[in-house]
Amino acid sequence: MTATETPRIGVYVCHCGINIASRVNVKEVVEFARGLPHVVVASEYKYLCSDPGQELIRADMKEHNLNRIVVASCSPLMHESTFRRVTAEGGQNEFLFQMANIREHVSWVTEDEGEATSKSKALVAGAVRRVAFHEPLTREKVPVNPNVLVVGGGIAGIQAALTMADAGKKVYLVEREPTIGGHMAKFDKTFPTLDCSACILTPKMSMVKSHPNIEMMTLSEVAEVHGYVGNFKVKVKKNPRYIKEDLCVGCLECIESCVYKEAKFPDEYNLGLGKRKPVYIPFPQATPQVVLVDPETCLYLKKGKCKQTCLEACDRKAIDFEQKEEISELDVGAIILATGFKAFDPTNRLPQYGYGFYPEVYTSLEIERLLNSAGPTSGELTTKSGQVPQTVGIVHCVGSRDKKTNVWCSRVCCMYSLKLAHLIEERTGAHVYNFYIDMRTPGKGYEEFYERLLQEGMRPVRGRVAAITDWAMTPEEEGKLVIRVEDTMIGVVRRIPVDMAVLSVGLEPQPDAKEVRRRFNISCSPEGWFLERHPKLAPVSTFTDGVFLAGACQGPKDIPDSVAQAGAAAAEALALIDRGYVEMEPNTAWIEEELCSGCKSCSGQCPYNAIGFDDEKARAMINEALCKGCGTCVATCPSGAARQKLFLDKQIYEEIRGVLSYV
Amino acid sequence: MSERFDRQIKYESDLDLNFAHQIASFPGGERIFDCIQCGTCSGTCPLSVYMEYTPRRIIAMTRAGFKDEVVRSNTIWLCSSCYSCTVECPKEIKLTDIMYAIKRQAIRENIWPKEFKMSPMMTGEFFKLVEKNGRNSEGWLMMNLYMKSMAVGDALKIAGIGMKMFAKKRMSLKTEKIADPAELRKILDAAGSEMELIKEGAKEVVHG
Amino acid sequence: MKYLYYPGCSLKVTGKPYEDSLLAVFNALEEEIEEVNDWNCCGATAYSAVDQMKAFALAARNLALAEEQGGEKAELVAPCAACYLVLNKTCHSIQDYPARVGLQVKRALKAGNLTYKGTVNIRHPLDVFANDIGLEVIEKRVKNKLAGLKVACYYGCQIVRPYAEFDDQHQPMTMDNIIKALGAEPVNWSLKTRCCGGSLSATVSDDALSLSRILIKEAKRRGADIITTACSLCQFNLECFQEKLKQKGDQPGETEIPVAYFTQIMGKALGIDEAKLGFKQSFMPLETLF
Ligand SMILES: Cc1cc2nc3c(=O)[nH]c(=O)nc-3n(C[C@H](O)[C@H](O)[C@H](O)COP(=O)(O)OP(=O)(O)OC[C@H]3O[C@@H](n4cnc5c(N)ncnc54)[C@H](O)[C@@H]3O)c2cc1C
Ligand code: SF4
Ligand code: SF4
């Protein structure tokens, strides 16, 4: 067909089960559509997106020689691509199609049936009049760069990187900490099988380091992202380590020889529970296994004055105090975000639990470090005064399921609390209480793990702890922390004296999630978790093509789920790369040269820097590969020279006229 | 047939399933259905150790329609309005307001446990004094209470303290009054009663 | 700025020493304060147990009177914890439930030829002293430094819960900071806002007794010489039942401690004559402490 042919339009109104049909009188809308100009057929169907629904359209196109299609159904985000494909299969250009959203914009948000039906008619009228002016368009094919960027080196990032590297792709793994491993590297054991975290994680970490296809960049963060799916240009900022990574072999001689004889600075990796020197390694299996110098505490870097005994001690000359921040530029075709979570910090946020006030109140993450044989106490758990605890209380839902902090369930805390109960009991022989609201153990082998803990004598109390205090009512309570809670199964309030209280802190989005979101041009849920394209059907995709999600940055998740999701994200990225090209949306803008006055109003406005200027002709010009079709220049141009495919003035005006003529 | 033990079972027909909706329609009651039965309220409540049903159970029973038990319980009379539960509840349920709402229901129905006869009596006396004078006169409130209450023992127990208060000039029988109590009564009459209001309120979009 | 003062029923009788010392302290700090004319009962706890609507109307009359007298943005000082709470609650409810409470209150006030625009700011004296007048100013005015005096600051329930924004609900510090500015030493304890038994002392006094007992014992355990309060009911519960505790078997001294209004202590430090601070009205002598 050519655009000059007389339009022969088919209109299809979907019931979407009862989603639309329960509010909108579909029959009436179809009847109305039949009366619109150029409409040859109009019909309805229960689910137009289903196979028979699609077939209905294709068959009509043949039988009635239709050359334009309108579907009134759900949001274009949902099924525009489906019906464009159907239109193409019916023998027409896929852009000779228009969708009217009568679900999200009508049936779901309108109470009155009469109003819903009239609004649907108005939208259908607009779509019919618009589609009559559609023109065939073609999609550009752009080759995909086969390299991949993974941001975040926790278990999710590691898994995704290894999967893609094994498939032969070049992977850049960017991690902002001095070592990869994320939270998992901090644990001693992992639920429900109690495998040693180090035993299963460190081999993967060293595989990352040694894999010929992976370039690991630690102490690094993504500073800028440009480009589009298949062709991203990424700037990575690497903070100085003051150590030449390729020279350091991790012998740790420098630490030994530092002018500070004692380690005296709080050690970040151990949440301040241990001490380190200005030159240090976060933990023995850190990857890369090289030291780093902290500029805040190093005498030379801070004051410029130090004997620099470390320099002499390093016979590989790996220490380099002159290192500066470095920027590198990467070209990648796909990006996987795996930036993980932040553990809830109860300081000042839940004062009734006395964290930061009573020394024997710990967070679960601190206990993980204290139980870890590579941790600050080599795995020995004692109170700050050196006593082996006899009773320990683990408090669930700290910073979860609570309107004052975070409303969501953090999903992993019940299980890790059971794990900690087991480990504490095993190491110290203490009686361990678990105070929970609901014991949530959905997962393979999880309920069995709970049962095991019950058999081991863990003491469950169903009730959210009201307060942890140190005032004594009975002699046994003297000198202890007292946990006050209603045992809701029994219906009485109990006071339980303990030597240690462990707060099972929830999972929160990273504090910089909002900035990262903006940098990668993806969306966040209101809480700050990265938003997937569809919660069920596209859980690792985002609304930005070529950017995928893995692990806890998308929402609270345990290790098995993070790993599974990382695999899925890698598969999606591989599918994109192995196809070799991407088809661009054709709705880009162009400049009508004769109309352009060369005023440059548009170029400054373009958010994607897609507008250049031809100095000879003194005309603006748009780089189609960079244009994302946002329409800003079209609206900006005072001379009407900026035009956009699929959003031509006549198309838009016709649509408005259609809507208004009905209203 | 006579059974040896009381049957503890509850039949749906014994319950008042509308009760929770009634409580929910008082200002402050709106979130009652959000309760997850975590027990934070009971744990934090300084009086729960004496209560027949802990605050959490009051919510559960109200929701399930155990109106009789709730209205007759000593819980609502033991509540000291300290607002601990209200500020600690993770679902921001205004429990103290709910306790009040149930207590007012009990007063309307003239029901209270006998150890608590002092409470409704005090409330009633207070109400009367304020309606009459616009202000409470603490001395008179105490006097009226002890004259009315049959609890001579109680009266004697506290009498010592009362006398001392008089001696220290921290109690007096002077009547405190506003200039024109009749004017105030007009306001109170025009305010109407809360029972009318919950009908109007059902439509209100609840803020906060 | 001139503050308006809402005494409430208690401060005229059981809490007389609170009123006297409060006004004396305002005077000593050269801050103007003026009683709201013809105020009525706030509608306190007991009242709202009968009819919530009438309680709101009662409280609203006071707010309307304060607005009339003090103009827009009047600063209304309500020292009694219960009054402070009820007045605040009324303001919040008028806003949160415009149909059920807001309109009805308007209608009620109209019957008494009053209106309330909603501009009155309800303040607790702790808030005024610490945040308006300021700790430095207070510190400068101190004539008798209370060095060595260990004070357990007790805030009670209803000042910081559920509305007050001027301090933390779990570990409030305003009173502690004021006490520190006077040269005394506030003790660190975790029961600052635990209930003293409230009005239960009048109805089921035995049970209420154990609540104040917990507080007194803990204050003593932390080494306090005195408990300071900011509410006449708290003061009464903590002070006046100590004898009864002894009758019930507490050892002499075990649960004995002077209990004063924080304003009495302030007054003392600011050099005000004890007679003006109601020291003589305490059950347990305060004079000997200094
Ligand atoms: C106390 C505790 C105990 C737990 N125990 C268990 C258990 O026993 N079993 C189990 O299955 N699960 C457990 N979990 C859950 C487990 O921690 C998570 O499932 C897992 O860590 C998620 O992995 P991740 O890679 O998505 O995120 P993370 O482990 O958080 O890793 C994210 C990584 O990304 C990096 N990063 C973040 N932002 C950026 C950025 N902008 N640029 C570059 N890098 C960035 C971080 O530094 C980090 O290295 C526990 C959780 C907690 C809190
Ligand atoms: S604290 Fe709130 S959610 Fe928990 S049981 Fe009490 S009312 Fe319900
Ligand atoms: S307000 Fe009542 S129920 Fe709530 S904690 Fe205080 S005394 Fe208990």
Number of helices of chain B: 12
Q: Report the biggest beta sheet of chain A as strand number plus sense, adding barrel if it closes.
A: 5 strands, parallel
- The percentage helix of chain A is 25-40%
Sequence stretches where pLDDT stays below 50 over 5 or more residues of chain A: none
Please state the average pLDDT score of chain B: 85
Overall pLDDT level of chain A: 95
Gap from first CA to last CA of chain B: 55 Å
In total, the number of domains of chain A comes to 5
In the CATH scheme, what's the topology name of the largest domain in chain B? Fumarate Reductase Iron-sulfur Protein, Chain B, domain 2
Distance between the termini of chain A: 33 Å
CATH class designation of the largest domain in chain B: Mainly Alpha
Helix content of chain B: 40-55%
Q: Considering residues with a beta carbon less than 8 A from a beta carbon on another chain, report the largest interface and each chain's count.
A: B-C, 75 and 74 residues
Number of domains of chain B: 2
Write up what this structure looks like.
The complex is a heterotrimer of chains A (663), B (208) and C (290). Chain A has 663 residues and is α/β, with parallel strands linked by helices. In chain A, strands 10-7-6-18-29 form a five-stranded parallel beta sheet, covered by helices on one side. A five-stranded parallel beta sheet of chain A has the order 20-27-21-22-23. In chain A, helix 2 crosses helix 3 (76-89). The longest helix of chain A has 21 residues, at 559-579. Chain A starts with 8 loop residues before the first strand and ends with a helix. The relative contact order of chain A is 0.11. The mean pLDDT of chain A is 95. With 208 residues, chain B is an all-alpha fold. The longest helix of chain B has 16 residues, at 118-133. The model of chain B has no long low-confidence stretch (mean pLDDT 85). Chain B is globular, with a radius of gyration of 20 Å. Chain B folds into two domains: 3-114, Fumarate Reductase Iron-sulfur Protein, Chain B, domain 2; 117-207, no CATH class. The N and C termini of chain B lie far apart (55 Å). Chain C is an alpha/beta fold and 290 residues long. Chain C has two domains: 36-123, no CATH class; 144-289, Rossmann fold (3-Layer(aba) Sandwich). Chain C is 47% helix and 9% strand. Chain C has twelve helices and eight strands. In chain C, strand 5, helix 7 (174-181) and strand 6 (185-186) form a beta-alpha-beta unit. In chain C, helix 3 packs across helix 4 (81-96) and helix 6 (125-141) packs parallel to helix 7. Chains in contact: A-B, A-C, B-C. At the B-C interface, helix 6, helix 7, helix 8, helix 9 and helix 10 of B face helix 2, helix 3, helix 4, helix 5 and helix 8 of C. The structure holds flavin-adenine dinucleotide (FAD) and iron/sulfur cluster (2 copies). One iron/sulfur cluster binds at residues 35-41, 56, 59, 89-91, 93, 95 of chain B.
